[in-house]
């Protein structure tokens, strides 16, 4: 018999006993629903985390001076003396601030396909005034260049970004965060652009207002006044001021290469010897995201374990049902053999039946799991996820379960003696 004939016969046998087939399909579908559902939900959470950290600069990193040092105890000192290859930070340069000239040199020498910005946090306790209105004395004043808003993932709501003339001249222009603009100009924020404010005793012309970004780390990203880095150098400069360099990589897959080249370039700028340890710190913005992804990876393992246990139980149940089916259809097998069907044909028929039942369970389970998992996408307002890899894996596992579960019943059916089978009551 041809494949289509045997497959058609197997399908009619499966559909002929809908209750038993439905129960078996349901058992298998539960395991795949758990697997695909949890993994789809995890993919939805990952997409949401990626989106959240992208707004905080997940594809960026920063270079700042090494303002925190870890002191090694006596054991560490002994180990250092015993190994001459261990790099050390010379005390004379261990906490050397990053000067504006060094930051500019880095920006000129760094040729990786990335965006570089220089910024300087001028104050964390400033009060901003507009006529008789004022903010609390906790507004952060930041000096940046024309790339600072892009690297920090700020979006202009009204007005414009800094231009080259603003940065080079250091003139008194400012961009307001949403919280500051609302405090000084009301919730509707009318006529903010081209108006004037006062930061301490210094007047600024407002050229832009930022969209809300929310809070991150230890500061509100909306409670800021951003001016140019040269303006902060002129007005808010202080002894031993240290500037920060931000780098935004265009392709997140090149993050490690970008960081390596940044460290090498800045070591040259800082004039460090080969045996000197870095006297600056590279900070990644996505460290929290990586920690969350590791936690979600553990959940992945639990999902796979639960699905494996369920599928193992389904395999036992499917084999039992197929054995019962062989016993019930003994006379049918005898008639089929008497009409000329070979043992190979009988074996294929029962194998196809087991595979059909398990694959149907896999398809229904994958669909249900995808829909249940995307409830998380709706709650997190992230994009709809179709985990094709896990769907194909789940259906493939179910087909394998059907094949394994059907081998023994199919072999048993094919070995029945037609004469004995015809006498079976």
UniProtKB/TrEMBL annotation:
<dbReference type="Pfam" id="PF02687">
    <property type="entry name" value="FtsX"/>
</dbReference>
<dbReference type="InterPro" id="IPR050250">
    <property type="entry name" value="Macrolide_Exporter_MacB"/>
</dbReference>
<comment type="similarity">
    <text>Belongs to the ABC-4 integral membrane protein family.</text>
</comment>
<feature type="transmembrane region" description="Helical">
    <location>
        <begin position="388"/>
        <end position="411"/>
    </location>
</feature>
<feature type="transmembrane region" description="Helical">
    <location>
        <begin position="350"/>
        <end position="376"/>
    </location>
</feature>
<keyword id="KW-0812">Transmembrane</keyword>
<feature type="domain" description="ABC3 transporter permease C-terminal">
    <location>
        <begin position="305"/>
        <end position="418"/>
    </location>
</feature>
<feature type="domain" description="MacB-like periplasmic core">
    <location>
        <begin position="21"/>
        <end position="261"/>
    </location>
</feature>
<feature type="transmembrane region" description="Helical">
    <location>
        <begin position="21"/>
        <end position="42"/>
    </location>
</feature>
<dbReference type="Pfam" id="PF12704">
    <property type="entry name" value="MacB_PCD"/>
</dbReference>
<dbReference type="GO" id="GO:0005886">
    <property type="term" value="C:plasma membrane"/>
</dbReference>
<dbReference type="InterPro" id="IPR025857">
    <property type="entry name" value="MacB_PCD"/>
</dbReference>
<dbReference type="InterPro" id="IPR003838">
    <property type="entry name" value="ABC3_permease_C"/>
</dbReference>
<keyword id="KW-0472">Membrane</keyword>
<protein>
    <submittedName>
        <fullName>ABC transporter permease</fullName>
    </submittedName>
</protein>
<keyword id="KW-1003">Cell membrane</keyword>
<keyword id="KW-1133">Transmembrane helix</keyword>
<feature type="transmembrane region" description="Helical">
    <location>
        <begin position="301"/>
        <end position="323"/>
    </location>
</feature>
<dbReference type="GO" id="GO:0022857">
    <property type="term" value="F:transmembrane transporter activity"/>
</dbReference>
